[in-house]
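Example 294, ligand adenosine-5'-triphosphate.
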Amino acid sequence: MLRLDDLTKVYKVGAFGGKTLTAVGGVSFDVAPGEVVSLIGESGSGKTTIGKMILGLIPITSGTITFDGVPVKPGKAYYRNVQGVFQDPFSSYNPVFKADRVFRMIREEYFPSARDWDERIETALSAVRLNPGQVLNKFPHQLSGGQLQRLLIARALLLDIKLLVADEITSMLDASTRIDVLNLLADLKARGLGVLYITHDLSLGNYLAERTVVLRHGSVVEMGLTEKVFGDPLHPYTRQLLSAVPRLRSSWEEAAPVETCLYHDSGTTGRLLEVEEGHQVACAHLATCPVTTG
Ligand SMILES: Nc1ncnc2c1ncn2[C@@H]1O[C@H](COP(=O)(O)OP(=O)(O)OP(=O)(O)O)[C@@H](O)[C@H]1O
């Protein structure tokens, strides 16, 4: 369904844009229908930049994104299939207007003459387990973060989308609402929705995703079936991420120092090495690796 090939994003930075920063470098992975792929990595690793490129919110520097085999062209037809929901539900609403105004744009753009509009809204709201009486005709401040986030997912569902880019959508929610939204995503996945679940929280990625992509400094360091990446992490960075989770008191470096890379001297060519079926790992020393820098 969605495929990223050698996707790269270079930002212009510095006072006059004279310097460059490679936020995403040569990233390739795919998301199939009904599959949740989690994209994990620490802050600044390039996760949101990838989400924005998929959603056509920023231009790609190089590489390609295809949807159902066709290069992505942001526009009405694409957004009918692919939508995004972001971290802060409050910022997606204008506090002056009622929250259900977010549905109006979808109606004007895609269903101007729909006679069954109210029914469609009810179906979308019930899919996200919202009671119309509790959320329609309310201002954003009268709704909880979880309700606002669900409204945004319902808005995406009105289009009967195939792929949802969910960027840190639970990070501003309390623990019980977070589980509710995760279970909702699991339901939607069971109905065939593909989800790119962007998070820096490993436990959430583990909970939901069939496959996991670990990003570091804009490059994929490990990816594969979630049970393999979490159960048998091979890249030192993945191990560092995983071992840091339960040890809140230890510093990041203490958690698990980056060690010698098993693949550094392997002599195998290619950026990611397939170590077993569905499990790929990069060299730990990407910048200097004779394998990955050719
Ligand atoms: N518009 C921009 N111009 C210049 N640099 C940017 C821009 N947007 C992001 N960056 C930089 O690109 C890198 C990746 O940022 P990005 O927001 O994609 O990371 P992230 O993994 O999503 O982080 P977080 O988890 O904190 O949201 C960072 O170094 C960031 O400072």
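Summary: The CA atoms of residues 103 and 155 lie 6 Å apart.
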